[in-house]
Specification:
Blueprint (H helix, E strand, L loop, with lengths): L2 H10 L10 H9 L8 E6 L4 H14 L4 E4 L11 E3 L2 E2 L2 H14 L12 H15 L4 E5 L16 E4 L7 H4 L3 H8 L9 E3 L4 H14 L3 E3 L5 E8 L2 E7 L5 E6 L6 H16 L5 H9 L8 E3 L5 E3 L5 H14 L4 E6 L7 H8 L5 E4 L10 H10 L6 E2 L3 H12 L5 E6 L2 H11 L13
Parallel strand pairs: 1-5, 1-6, 2-5, 6-7, 7-8, 13-17, 14-15, 14-17, 15-16
Antiparallel strand pairs: 2-3, 3-4, 9-10, 10-11, 12-13
Helix pairs in contact: 1-4, 3-9, 3-10, 4-5, 7-8, 11-12
Length: about 450
């Protein structure tokens, strides 16, 4: 089997859709020898910030000298981004080998169970890869929800719940309370929980789940917190506050003030997991060494570009706040592609006021809203000075054309991880900057 053939097989599993539930995953894992039982884990659920918190937590654990697996989704450009050990992606050869092995290994289950979904299969791949490579810890991000998510077989050292908002309502429920119930499903008996500050309805659900399971609950803003020292386009500096465990002079190279809470969640998660073995110098080093693509990521060029995966109103609001604070002198040329099942109106209301020009497009993905439908939605809410493009590539070309006659332009590409992933592939990974202070 070649790598393209393995990827075709994996993506072909998407035709089985998203089917929440653990029975099939349990059967698959049993056939593979329950690989998740061979390493310690941190389990991360939530609506916004999961990837950033997971990446920072993994980096802190790695800085302590552990071999650390990281399982996240979605990927932006390459499937190999989803599964990493000590920051290094799984190789294409290993993807091929594991795909073939797992496909053949679970062949007997097909007589009694339906085909696995894409996420069920990939979760099994990640767990088996981590076991085979002898990781000490793995930070596991849920795919969707938590209670019935394929990752929810693990018994973690700590469960983390990032900020909860309205997203994936067709699967998780129509209200914040419904969605919080699904996210809180990762809480296990006696396992401590680290939570972001939450809307009241979500907080009540998480509190009730922690109480029912006899789990200690640590809430940002109540039990630990952060002081923002500085926020710039290349990251934040802050202090962490947790009684006697306060830390000063911490730095994360992830931009946006919302990363303060995410970083503090990661610190608290690592401290809870490691207990007395925590080393404060390793915490600082792990945070500083964290890199996470597609989150307020600047790209070198003329004009400069900003890429962010804001795919729901809360994330779009954070992006809008960042633009207003740090890019007020720029004329924003907005390239926007959104999935049809998202809160399009909510996203548009946050992002369109910041833009000088807006170009709607649709990434090459079945769930994408058409550019025309996005323009129609924009017009309905009072923004008619927009245009459409036939593809992400065409939108980028048009944005560059507009930039030639625009003073201090900046192209902002956002609305979906699928949109920014396609843009990154078109632009090339090598253009990503490590330090942007002289370019924007």
């Amino acid at each position: 089997m070649s790598y393209p053939a393995a990827i075709d097989y994996l993506y072909g599993l998407q035709k089985f859709g998203i089917k929440l539930g653990l029975d099939k995953t349990k059967a698959i894992m049993s056939e593979l020898g329950d690989p998740f039982a061979d390493f310690k884990t941190v389990h991360v659920a939530g609506t916004n910030g999961k990837g950033s918190v997971s990446a920072m937590t993994a980096s802190i654990l790695q800085a302590h000298g552990f071999k650390v697996g990281l399982f996240t989704s979605p990927h932006l450009v390459s499937f190999t981004e989803r599964i990493r050990i000590n920051g290094k992606r799984i190789t294409e050869e290993e993807v091929v080998s594991l795909t073939s092995e797992i496909r053949d290994g679970i062949a007997g289950l097909r007589t009694v169970l339906p085909e696995p979904t894409f996420f069920e299969f990939v979760t099994a791949m990640a767990f088996l890869y981590f076991k085979r490579n002898g990781v000490d810890w793995a930070v596991i991000e849920t795919g969707m929800g938590g209670r019935l998510d394929a990752t929810n077989l693990i018994m973690p050292a700590v469960s983390v719940i990032t900020k909860i908002g309205l997203d994936h309502k067709e699967f998780l429920g129509e209200t914040i309370k419904d969605i919080a119930f699904e996210k809180a499903g990762i809480i296990k008996a006696g396992v401590p929980v680290v939570s972001a500050s939450q809307p009241d309805d979500a907080a009540q659900v998480i509190n009730a789940a922690a109480l029912k399971n006899g789990s200690k609950l640590f809430i940002y803003g109540n039990d630990f917190s952060g002081d923002l020292w500085n926020s710039a386009i290349d990251g934040i500096a802050f202090g962490y506050r947790n009684g006697a465990s306060s830390l000063d002079g911490l730095r994360v190279r992830l931009a946006g003030e919302h990363q303060l809470e995410n970083a503090c969640l990661a610190v608290k998660a690592a401290m809870t997991a490691l207990g007395e073995d925590i080393k404060y110098s390793a915490v600082a080093r792990g945070l500083n060494e964290t890199r996470w693509a597609g989150r307020l990521e600047f790209i070198q060029g003329d004009p400069p570009m900003l890429i962010d995966g804001a795919h729901n109103p809360d994330a779009a609001e954070s992006l809008s706040c960042f633009v207003g604070k740090h890019l007020a002198g720029k004329n924003i040329i907005l390239v926007l592609g959104i999935m049809a099942d998202k809160d399009i109106d909510g996203i548009l209301k946050q992002l369109l006021p910041s833009a000088t020009s807006t170009i709607f497009c649709a990434p090459n993905y079945g769930r994408a809203a058409s550019a025309g439908s996005l323009a129609a939605k924009a017009s309905q809410i009072g923004f008619s000075n927009t245009e459409t493009a036939s593809s992400v590539y065409a939108a980028l070309q048009r944005a560059r054309e507009i930039s030639l006659r625009t003073e201090a332009p900046l192209i902002l590409i956002t609305g979906s991880f699928y949109t920014i992933g396609e843009a990154k592939e078109l632009l090339g990974e090598k253009a990503v900057l490590g330090d942007l202070r002289e370019t924007v």
